[in-house]
Amino acid sequence: MSIEMSGYVSEILCGYIPEALKETFTQYVLQKRDDTVAPPWMTRRNPSYVSPEFIKKIWYEEKEIMEEIARQSGTRWTGYRDVNNLCHRLGFGSGKQGLGLFEIGVFMEGRPLLEFVPFEPHEVQDRLKNMERIRARWMEAEPLPLLREGYVAVSAGSWAKGTMVFETSMDGAFDADRLELLLLDLTNLGVGEDHYVAGLRYAGEPLPGRVVRQTQKEMYPLLWYCPETGKWLDMYETA
Q1: Measured in whole angstroms, how far is the alpha carbon of residue 215 from the centre of its chain?
Q2: N or C terminus of the chain with fewer C-beta within 10 Å?
Q3: Cα–Cα distance, 215 to 96 (Å, whole number)
Q4: DSSP E strands: which ranges in 56-139?
Q5: Average pLDDT of the chain to the nearest whole number
Q6: Interval 103-159: pLDDT, tens
């Protein structure tokens, strides 16, 4: 049996970087920012403002620049996806307006058995069901990062419209009542996802999933956690 889930495929990455790397990165974006990008009222209110798009471009796309920033900080840079020692999740982002899923299809040997959609079907069809029929199970929320001397926690990631496939071998006929969505609140990690779909479970067992289709990725804002204020801040900001 395979289950195809379509929506906003989201990869969440959260981990520690050396404090020196954060400071050097902040200095770089402050020095290289384009002051013409921000409206005048923004720079008057916040003279240190740096566009989130510029920060994302450096962190996610400019590998050589990041390698040089890391070298100046006395460390190495291997890529943004390696900053994940606090959290690394692959699932479906929903924002803060409920489940961000388009549909869930259940297939047996390639034949469609059932399809869950985010609306009430107009006609009674055995194969088309409202997604609210699927039971939701909340996982324990990710905690706030702990204070670690010499390091700061950063939060990043990506999202794109796409599809994941979850496969399982099961005995007997498919039972929709045994299917569960695993939900997770990620707001403690600086991510605006309080209904993150972290995966599926069937008959009490988590199902392994893989991405099979995906459009061009959009990147989450890059933030760092300030223990002194208990807030997630933009990377150009200091404590």
Answers
A1: 15
A2: C
A3: 22
A4: 87-92, 101-108, 111-117, 128-130, 135-138
A5: 92
A6: 999 998 888 889 998 877 766 567 888 888 899 999 999 999 999 999 999 999 999
